[in-house]
Amino acid sequence: MVGFYKNEIQCAVCKKKYEVTKVLSRRTVVVSRDSDFCPHYKDMNPIFYSVNVCPYCGYTSFDNDNEIIYKKQISNFKQMMEGKWKYQELNNEKSIDDAIKVYKLLLLTYKAIDKKKSSVAKAYLRLAWLYRYKNDNENEVKFLKSMIVNNEIAFSTEKLAEDLKNELEIMFILAETHRKLGNYKEAIDWFIRVSNHEEINKHRVIKLRNKEQWSLAIEEYRSGV
């Protein structure tokens, strides 16, 4: 497959090894980004390939999932999948509908293992973007709302400050998503939090985008758009 390469990984649950397909970095050319940083690619979209599905047991995870999976989580996952999973290969070249299927499996896995809310929110956001690529506004909005719920829980229950740039991006995406959904008071509150963040002056792109979208949210709120 031109533009792809293979990696071998080991499943965290059943311990079997399997191959996954990834996009060569030189083929991931971003041509534009939406106001919430959703990327649009010239050729191949790596978002389709950032989730791995074990063909043997169905355990699904992001590439960078590196948290320890405990025995109770494994037990819960196996109980959920019992009688429902048959060997299937979902790690080859993907259509957008294939990618959507994989992300929904990711959310099922996260539910079974009680994954932290910030990770669940990331999965919902990527799924919303996939529906955006399809121009399916109803499902995009549905999953954006789920992203908001999980990220707002994460900010009140998890320690997110290990990666302050990532924390800033999440806060900005929350603000901008609230704005896009017409939740202007909530949007303005989050834009203010971004503006007051201790690291904001170190990240010029986020600072400028936050200022622009904050002003837009205030205008929309005042005009009753």
Descriptive report:
This protein is an alpha+beta fold and 225 residues long. The protein is built from seven helices and six strands, in the order ββββββααααααα. β5 (51-53) and β6 form a beta hairpin. α3 packs antiparallel against α4 (137-157) and α6 (184-195) packs antiparallel against α7. The chain is globular. The termini are far apart.
Write the topology of this structure:
Blueprint: E1 4-10, E2 17-23, E3 30-33, E4 39-41, E5 51-53, E6 60-62, H1 71-81, H2 96-113, H3 117-133, H4 137-157, H5 164-180, H6 184-195, H7 204-223
Antiparallel strand pairs: 1-2, 3-4, 5-6
Helix pairs in contact: 2-3, 3-4, 4-5, 5-6, 5-7, 6-7
Structural class given helices, strands, pairing?
alpha+beta
Q: What's the rounded overall pLDDT mean?
A: 94
Total helix count? 7
Biggest sheet descriptor = 2 strands, antiparallel
Count of DSSP strands: 6
Q: How widely separated are the two ends? A: 47 Å
The Cα radius of gyration reads 19 Å
Concise account of the structure shown:
The protein contains 7 helices and 6 strands, in the order E-E-E-E-E-E-H-H-H-H-H-H-H.
